[in-house]
Design a protein that fits this description.
This protein is α+β, with helices and mostly antiparallel strands and 206 residues long. Helix content is 32%, strand content 30%. The strands form three sheets. It has a five-stranded mixed β-sheet with strand order 6-3-4-5-8. Strands 2-1-7 form a three-stranded antiparallel β-sheet, covered by helices on one side. The structure holds zinc ion.
């Protein structure tokens, strides 16, 4: 058994049985630390993360594998994401008490489960052939960045962004996956919609 975050392929010799062992330690703790999840929610989120980590080891893909569950029960939303670069992140939303020991179906109630694969955004998956008996490290890493937040704000449009700055003095956006906060002051917000192309180095020469 590996004792760190990893996916470990295994194979029973003389039989056709093979599989993957997934071990989540620091990566799971990092996900669970971002929000004050009750124990039953931690269990469900942990299982969902283990499921996507296992699936990501089984399916060849380049990008993100995302499991989303939305229901009317106490566990409202569950999102677990694994990338081909072997990173994990996840989030859960709940209302009221999620029963301990209940199944995912019981916790979520009537709802839907969607599994999607988003292409791109990760390192190419395994150029070489399948390697057996080698474990691969897993890590919690959020894909959010200042650039992504800026792109999102641009889609809101300049008037909306300017009125947010006027009202609040600055814009703060908190990523719900990792709780990282991005702050844009009036100058930053103005630069989002700066007119004209940026000067290229050659244009600077006289
Ligand atoms: Zn984030």
């Amino acid at each position: 058994m590996p004792d760190t975050d990893s996916i470990h392929r295994f194979l029973f010799e003389h039989s056709s049985i093979r599989g993957n062992l997934v071990h989540l330690d620091a990566s799971l703790r990092a996900v669970l630390e971002t929000h004050p999840y009750p124990p039953a929610v931690r269990v469900q989120l942990g299982q969902a993360l283990a499921a996507v980590a296992l699936l990501s080891a089984t399916i060849k893909f380049n990008g993100s594998l995302i499991l989303q569950v939305q229901g009317r029960g106490p566990l409202r939303t569950l999102v677990a994401q694994a990338t081909s670069a072997r990173t994990l992140r996840g989030i859960a939303r709940w209302e009221g008490e999620v029963p301990m020991g209940a199944s995912l179906a019981e916790s979520c109630g009537e709802g839907r489960l969607v599994l999607t694969i988003e292409r791109g955004g990760g390192e190419p998956y395994h150029e070489d052939d399948v390697r057996l008996f080698e474990s691969e490290p897993l890590a919690f890493r959020c894909g959010c960045s200042r650039r992504r937040i800026e792109d999102m704000l641009r889609t809101l449009g300049e008037p909306e962004v300017r009125s947010m700055v006027t009202e609040q003095g600055a814009i703060t956006v908190t990523c719900e996956f990792c709780n990282r906060t991005y702050r844009l002051d009036a100058v930053d917000a103005g630069q989002l919609f700066a007119q004209g192309p940026r000067q290229t180095p050659s244009a600077v020469h006289h």
